[in-house]
Amino acid sequence: MPPIHITVRGIEKLLKELKPNKAQGPDNIPARILKEIASKIAPILTIIFQKSINSGTPPSDWLKAHIVPIHKNNDRTIASNYRPISLTSIPCKILEHISTSIHKHLEKHNILTD
Questions:
Q1: Contacting residues for 23 by C-beta, under 8 A, at least 6 apart
Q2: What CA–CA distance (Å, rounded) separates 35 from 64?
């Protein structure tokens, strides 16, 4: 299989498509800022994403998350009526999106074996 190449244009596109009100993670960088500076930060993130895909490991800081309780239903005073969600950094979410896309492609074309 040929190497997977992450492109600056693809990363810039993903950054520009960010929803400005998307929750920020432990890095406290708002999506709005990443969207506004997409053309400047895309080359840097492309290098980080490519290294991560090549090595199979994300940057260690991106593994940190804020765990936030989200109310499911009924009485708000009962803990079991909440579910935890993990808020990771937005670049981490983009890397997850890339990894998921690669995995779907590999499955679709029967490249992966048991």
A1: 87
A2: 22
> Coil, strand or helix: which one is 96?
helix
Q: What is the pLDDT of residues 49-92, one digit of tens each?
A: 999 999 999 999 999 999 999 999 999 999 999 999 999 999 99
Cβ 12 vs Cβ 84: under 8 Å: no
pTM: 0.83
Tokens in use for 78? 């009962």
Tell me the one-letter amino acid at 95.
Answer: L
- Please tell me the total number of residues recorded for the chain in this structure: 114
Number of folded domains that form the chain:
1
Q: Is residue 44 part of a domain?
A: yes
Residue-wise pLDDT for 25-55, tens only, equals 999 999 999 999 999 999 999 999 999 999 9
Which of the 8 DSSP states describes residue 65?
Answer: -
Range of the domain at 96: 8-108
Helix (H, G, I), strand (E, B) or coil at 85: strand
